[in-house]
Amino acid sequence: MMTSVDTDLIRVLADPLRLRIVNLLAHETLCTTHLVEETGARQTNLSNHLKVLREAGVVETEPCGRFTYYRLRPDVLARLAGQFSDLAETARTTVETGRKRAC
Fold first, then answer.
1. Is 98 left (phi over 0), alpha (psi -120 to 50) or beta?
2. Rg of the chain over CA atoms, in angstroms?
3. For residue range 46-99, what is the model confidence (pLDDT) as tens digits?
4. Do residues 18 and 12 make contact, with C-beta atoms less than 8 angstroms apart?
């Protein structure tokens, strides 16, 4: 069963801009300047979204001079994907066995 931590992570990833950032970071490590260019978002807005992703443990930072690079933490996404996979398997079993609660 999914825990409240997992639903918090789902809420974090449900935002369209944050999901776009995650998709971009899946392909390469980027700094804020690159993410502004790629998304068209304002720097302050983007920084706020990156803070949410960082606090949720989805991304980690790497300082490089006056820039901060962001990279995805694939283990966090893999854990969430595994939980969805488990949930799908439970649903599959429920359908196959015809399990239904009587009214």
1. left
2. 18
3. 999 999 999 999 999 999 999 999 999 999 999 888 888 888 888 899 999 999
4. yes
Integer angstrom CA distances of residue 91 from 7, 79, 103: 18, 19, 20
Q: What percent of the chain has pLDDT over 70?
A: 95
Contacts of 36 (CB under 8 A, 6+ apart): 42, 43, 46
Stated pTM of the model: 0.84
Sequence length of the chain is 103
Q: How far apart are CA 96 and CA 103, in angstroms?
A: 20
